[in-house]
Amino acid sequence: MSLIEAVRGGRSSQVLESLKTVAAQQEGLAPLAARLGDLADLVRWDMRDVEELMATLPRGTSHVHRSAHHLLDRGGKRLRPMCTALASRVGSGFSPAARDLAVSVELVHCATLLHDDVVDLGDQRRGAPSARTVYGNAASIFAGDWLLIDALRRVRGARVDGVLERLFEIIEEMIFAESVQLENRGRLDSSEDDYWFVVEGKTAALFRWAMFAGARAGGLSAGDAEGDRGPAGALEDYGRHLGVAFQLVDDLLDFAGDEAKTGKALFADLREGKMTYPLLVARDRDETVLPLLETMIESPEGEAPPAGLQQKLREALERTSALADCRALAQSHADRAAAALGGLPASRAKEALLTVAEATVHRER
Amino acid sequence: MSLIEAVRGGRSSQVLESLKTVAAQQEGLAPLAARLGDLADLVRWDMRDVEELMATLPRGTSHVHRSAHHLLDRGGKRLRPMCTALASRVGSGFSPAARDLAVSVELVHCATLLHDDVVDLGDQRRGAPSARTVYGNAASIFAGDWLLIDALRRVRGARVDGVLERLFEIIEEMIFAESVQLENRGRLDSSEDDYWFVVEGKTAALFRWAMFAGARAGGLSAGDAEGDRGPAGALEDYGRHLGVAFQLVDDLLDFAGDEAKTGKALFADLREGKMTYPLLVARDRDETVLPLLETMIESPEGEAPPAGLQQKLREALERTSALADCRALAQSHADRAAAALGGLPASRAKEALLTVAEATVHRER
Q1: Residues B169-203: tens digit of each pLDDT
Q2: Whole-prediction pTM value?
Q3: Using CA atoms, how far apart are residues B276 and B269, in angstroms rounded to an integer?
Q4: Closest-approach residue (CA) in chain B for A66
Q5: Is A63's CB within 8 Å of B179's CB?
Q6: CATH number, position A327
Q7: B153 vs A contacts (CB less than 8 Å)
Q8: Closest Cα of chain B to A301: distance in Å?
């Protein structure tokens, strides 16, 4: 029985969309499949609430509305709002405030995707033409602005102590991480330090906030003046490591993913001149890799590198253990995410978060 | 004695930058010149505070920091923060909270300029190459995002009741106004309704907020549940009409301005396919205007329309009284701005706001 079939047995809900991310055919994952079933049972209604609330976002006729809905309607993994829901359930539960925060984190995420596609000249997103290719760059810029403001309004309206201020900090981190990524574009000699700055700011930061916001909405303490960061701090640490693991798997999928599942062409990161973790590893371990990459990014805009070069790169990634090490590092961050929860009392929500961490490493899209 | 000389007599301050906007050589403006002197005395230190606080915005080496400062360092009229300062002085005075709000309104304004230049492919801003031409579109998008978030953080930090929520509404209005303007770009048959929607949202909305925020920081009431909007409501109405007057004069300067003063090429709005108020009037009163405009916007990108066509358009604007009517309408909105203050007790700040309204109609940049 495949993992997806196991999860699907009698269950149908929005959250299954998230669970499709898990490797369905791998050996030894039957226990994970069962736990994913529990997770689905736990958050099914929460995630339906999130979708229903997102569906109330105004649908005007302007290109701004259309650009935003073009992206939102494609669905997505909704992993960030699920984190917020679960964090709130570690506390007092998924309240209306927690639901507003869960929607907000997805809207912030979508806002950054809309701006990123303009910045990166991205043509595809979630397996469809990106909003900017359908409605233009300008509408995508304004649509991103709109979703960002709408998210901030919701966070303000939720009136949960400290989460709005924290979100401002997080968004600033995201902007400067995006900026470093942009300035390193096409720089095959960019440093591992820069790579981590980008991953922490671009991916881990919003996962951190998703967890922190849910925890605070669930009434969990953010610690005291003596430096104890409380259960909200522990959940935030979980978010950080989950985000890093998520990004490392994203990097892997650029070389080893199934395009039909990821909705993204292979080598897309490389073609955009982005140095992912496996490329950094291979470059630093094998001196033939840098000249190979230099040749590959010279491919004409929009065209995949020639098959012969792709094969050479795959061989180099194999020879240097770059993919295996990337996967091992993702696993280690998933483990650290799980360890961050060590001090929290046992609960169904905590169990579900452990499941999410494990599933993230095995996701296929 | 020119107006500027009158104002300058013995006085030098940042606020003079704002006052240079006033027609210097016109007859009968000596009383206005004297009143501008009083205005300068009143707000000189407030505006210096604003500049000093804006100067503390981080100056990193990233293109995001550089794009933002490229725009901020060009100065500008700082009319919006001056409105906030004066509104606060109608109340209890220019407190640190009022100062934070004054800086925020300028940062929101600059954020929209950075995004607008990307959307409009604008090459010039404040008499210099726009940030996007120096640092690229992507950096300008992120710089706009950064200034927006920084502004919202400051507003949140000021903790003045109701101003953050109001700013979210205002920014949403701005986004959809920009969007309508964008969708009407090049549409010479666009309606006067759309024109007013854009002016209200794009220009008047932020002036409204500048006044409202200052008023609230100054402790003035925003009214009660019975629909009385209080002194903060009156000052907000002032802001709305001031904003409309400001935009109408902007429209005029596109045909009649001095490029050295405005820092903007003549016919720039027309070349961007924007139907300004004088063009709407001339088009609706004279059937030769529409075909003339159709020919003019066919000029190659970046080139001014041929001198002969420019001359024909000037004649049509003259013949249809489009410029005179635009100026009269600007004057009428300045008068309505002044009238909105009718119920407020006499004060130096109120007097200064009346001066700002009058000066706005006569500004040359």
Answers
A1: 999 999 999 999 989 988 999 999 999 999 999 99
A2: 0.89
A3: 7
A4: B179
A5: yes
A6: 1.10.600.10
A7: 165, 168
A8: 18
